[in-house]
Amino acid sequence: MDERHDYIVNWREYLHGLMDDPEAVAYMNRVRDFFELMQPGQKVRLQAAAPKQTWLWVATGAFLCEGDHGNRYELDDDYLFLCCFA
């Protein structure tokens, strides 16, 4: 199984450990805020430098599970991009 897929789908398994790291928490909050501001038709590549890559994937999984957004969000088949739809 692809590491990216694992972190996004199983984000709950990783979130608790990251909550002890103030830098990780701040980064994941910024990611969430960015996702919320995306406009329909936008897509973002889920790529960052380590260790932020892991934080990005976990934040993405948590964001998608919240499900209470004004827009619809979907991952592409390879979990490389998050796409925003009206």
Written description of the protein model:
The protein contains four helices and three strands; from the N terminus they run αααβαββ. The protein has 86 residues and is α+β, with helices and mostly antiparallel strands. It has one domain. It has a three-stranded antiparallel beta sheet, with no helix packed on it. Strand 2 and strand 3 form a beta hairpin. The protein starts with a helix and ends with a strand.
Sequence-ordered SSE layout with sheet pairings:
Blueprint (H helix, E strand, L loop, with lengths): L2 H7 L1 H8 L3 H16 L5 E3 L6 H15 L5 E4 L5 E5 L1
Antiparallel strand pairs: 1-3, 2-3
Write a compact overview of the structure shown:
With 86 residues, this protein is an alpha+beta fold.
* Shape category: globular
Poorly predicted ranges? none
Percent range of helical residues: 40-55%
- Approximately what portion of the residues adopt beta-strand conformation? 5-15%
Total of DSSP H or I helical runs spanning 4+ residues: 4
What is the average per-residue confidence, as pLDDT, rounded to a whole number?
Answer: 96
Order of helices and strands: HHHEHEE
The N- and C-terminal alpha carbons lie at a distance of 31 Å
How many discrete domains?
1
Strand order of the largest sheet: 1-3-2
Total strands:
3
Radius of gyration: 12 Å
Please state the structural category.
Answer: alpha+beta
What kind of sheet is the major sheet? Answer: 3 strands, antiparallel
